[in-house]
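Wed. Picked up where I left off yesterday with D-lactate dehydrogenase (cytochrome). The coffee machine is broken again, so keeping this brief.
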Amino acid sequence: MASGDNYNNLNCKSTLNLFDLNSPVYCSNHKLPEALQKIADIVGIENVTNSENEIQSHRDSLGNSFKPLKNEYSNLIVYPTSTEQISKVVRVCNEYRLPIVPYAGGTSLEGQYVPTRNGICLDTSKMAKIIRLNQDDLDIVVQPGVTWQDLNAFLQPYNLFFGPDPGPGAQIGGMVATSCSGTNAFRYGTMKDNVLSMKIVLPDGTLIKTKNRPRKSSAGYNLTNLFIGSEGTLGICTEVTLKLNIIPKHEIIALSYFDSIKDASKTVSDLFKNGIQLNAIELMDSRQMKVINQFSYTDRKWSENNLLICKIGGPTKNILNDTIDIFEKISSQNNGFNFEIATNEREKTELWSARKTNLWSSIDWAKSMDPDMKYWTTDVAVPVSKLPNVIEETAIDIENSGLNTTIVGHVGDGNYHALIIFPPEKEQIAKQVLNRMIKRAIDNEGTVSGEHGIGLSKRDFLIDELGQDTINTMRKIKLALDPLRIMNPDKIFKIDPNDVKTSH
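Structure written out below (tokens, as returned):
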């Protein structure tokens, strides 16, 4: 066993086994008031709070299966307003061994900001400045508290937009932390494809820049991608340089309905085989469409069948029309019907709004059954060729288990989501269904998460996907940068041999 936090005897190894560590030692109750006062002095008393409401609102997220114990809540919520303040706050936390849970828009779904060790919750929402637009280079420098919607509203007059579009309210800092994506990822990529460089405060307070602005660089390690998807376990991003895109000159929304979710999924594979380039392609199952109608989340009524909806773009209307014809033909070959297109902005917004309201309409559905009804939402991804069978098997499994669900997917990249609804007495059944959904993805050469991340909810499953040696390599990197284990402890993988929390 390692002695305390000194694991120098293990430095000859490239990996780090969990059971070669002792439990981390954190700030004592005796020293805690002193540490918190120093932090308040740095950011100003107006930028800290220990109010019960604020601590409650920063403790977990909708649809997350992990709920923190009251004795694990953060001691203080901190709202820094600059990179300098974050660096100073982190230095204090390092000095006092005070855990830090970074917090952005609060939209993550796998327990990324659930506190497990008290300490502080560092909320970057007040750092919401757009620092510089480099219009000729198609990039922009922003602070982590900017939401992707506000960013795109700023960019629209310049005929530009930022590609990733996750759930409403998501902020750039959290999007970086989870390596999220959204409906546009099929064409424009995930966060890993859209971040050029970052400024990062490391766990000892050191500020680093991961890269300069050029699109192309072979200058050393790719530190930018190391921090993207690290869920705040390696450092805190305080400034991000993002790639931008030109708004397509011509773009329409097209849709087709299917009786079978398998037929809808197979249509996607067939489109790819025909070389069709789409800007986005999304699937919503028949239950989801019924729920959207039931709660009037859009201005129109929808056919309550499985829906495949896509964005088709191109430089000319002729190319657009050719693609539309092929999409309609392939949909029909897979038993699609009620083909529809939208060309003006009002119609396009109306059609696409169904996809963007799916989560909230499903939650309303759950609560309408019973105010005590519980729900979990999670995602997996598989190779596109395997998606038709996998998504159908999942839908049948949930239905046969006596639970309710809605299924949606970014099917262009094999990523789908299930919101599982269950009464409290069926929680164990829901866990088993979720476990089978994740195992099904792994068995089909897929991943336990296409875009939500790992957090607390999927730590054990990550081992099943990647193997213990890979997790031990990640742990080695974590301990190299954060030997005191203060940065968002317990997320992605275990850092304490006495940690008994289990996935779902």
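Quick read: The chain is about 35% helix and 20% strand.
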